[in-house]
Amino acid sequence: MINDNHVSNRKANPDTMASARPAAEPPALRRSDSDLKKDARLIAAAAHAAVPSWANMVLISSLILGGCCANVFALEAIIKEQATAGPLITFAQFVICAVFTLPNFLSLSAGPSAFFLSPRAIPLRSWMIYTAFFVTVNLLNNWAFAYKISVPLHIILRSAGPVASMIIGYIFNGRKYSQGQILSVAMLTIGVVAAAIADAQTKGHSVQVTSESAMITTAIGFTILALAMILSAFQGIYADRLYATYGRDHWKEALFYSHALSLPLFVTSYPQLSAQWRTIVSSPSLLTKIPHTVTSSETVLSMVTAGIQNHRPTQAFLGQLPVQVAYLVMNALTQYLCIRGVHLLSAKSSSLTVTVVLNVRKLVSLLLSIYLFGNHLANGVLIGAALVFIGGGLYGFEGARLRNKAIRNDQPTGGVGKPALKQQ
């Protein structure tokens, strides 16, 4: 009410309004308040921009290190009991990934003719070719476990991907490589060969069969993984051509279509998948794997065990859930988290960062596999693993150095530098 009277008096009496002006807020003070508000907005904007950035890095690190390492744990828990479950593991991973990425592409306005999917940035035919590479590589990688390839050795051999990529790139794309890249790939090759020979020799002496039989079985497993690496290199070349044509901002589309289009291909494997599923369902319940005695120490495991014992519905559920089914679901979910974290990291970081993080993840997975499952690796395998990880790090470092050099060379010409393609 006072404010209304004041405004009406100022309107009715100009003299009063003029006399009231000295009591008004000085212009300098008003500008100062404005500046303070502007500074506050800038600080808030900076904080808003910084917090999500740190949150994203924490999320990405959690997805890769937590998701991928937990994925390897669940994978080995299944393989230890059923080495031939590779196709079922692959199918479960593809179903989960397709279902979780589907909401990003659902569009009712697209109509039934487009299966209610939003328009694609890359043609469907291109995704079908990419999917053929993708599903074959994944099936071969998981199939190798049926030929006595241990999870630690599997991690080491798959880390040699740059070897196949360099050879295929040189033969089919005419790419040139620096001395640093050649040196790093030579280290990778020596490391893989050393690990493979040491592992084969160890199996020849430890398995109660003829050494020749063990060597043949191991050789088949190595051949399957080598074929998977070669096809993966071709997949990478094809993906680079797609991204060079349509841009590299379509990783979600790649994630969805590469998994969704793969699912119909499993129809021919239904008898095999059904048999593997029956075996997994017949495993003991998850409750049998949980300790029945609670220790006095206040560890996370003891608190979880106490909580389960005091909660009858949880006990009933875990008593009906086969342990291998729980591991299968865990493996599929963590695979989605892992691959999503890798794609997010590729979109937000340099290829060097991606290479280093993935090598750290593989090393952590290897150490966890040795510690949790009692895997004992021969000295030759350990030396080979060290060469593989060091060579992989050097390869990523050299690739980042060459890209930065190319960008610096492009800048003086006045042209717009072409952004580096990130390795996924």
How does this model look, in words?
Pfam families: UAA. Its main location: endoplasmic reticulum. GO terms for molecular function: UDP-N-acetylglucosamine transmembrane transporter activity; UDP-xylose transmembrane transporter activity. Residues 18-27 have a biased composition (Low complexity). The chain is mainly α and 424 residues long. It has a domain at 80-283 and 322-413. The protein is 75% helix and 0% strand. It has helices spanning 2-12, 14-20, 27-81, 86-101, 124-143, 151-158, 161-173, 179-206, 211-246, 251-260, 270-281, 300-309, 312-320, 323-348, 351-373, 379-410. The longest helix is centred in the first third of the chain and has 55 residues, at 27-81. The radius of gyration is 29 Å and the shape is globular. The termini are far apart.
Short overview:
Residues 1-33 are annotated as: Disordered. The protein is mainly alpha-helical.
Task: Give the helices and strands as they follow along the chain.
Answer: HHHHHHHHHHHHHHHH
The profile of the biggest β sheet is: none
Radius of gyration: 29 Å
Helix and strand content put the structural class at: mainly alpha
Shape: globular
User: What fraction strand?
Assistant: under 5%
Secondary structure tally, helices: 16
Q: Which percent bin holds the helix content?
A: over 70%
Query: What's the average pLDDT?
Result: 75
- Uncertain segments are 1-25, 27-31, 47-52, 205-210, 413-424
Cα end-to-end separation: 67 Å
* Extended strand count: 0
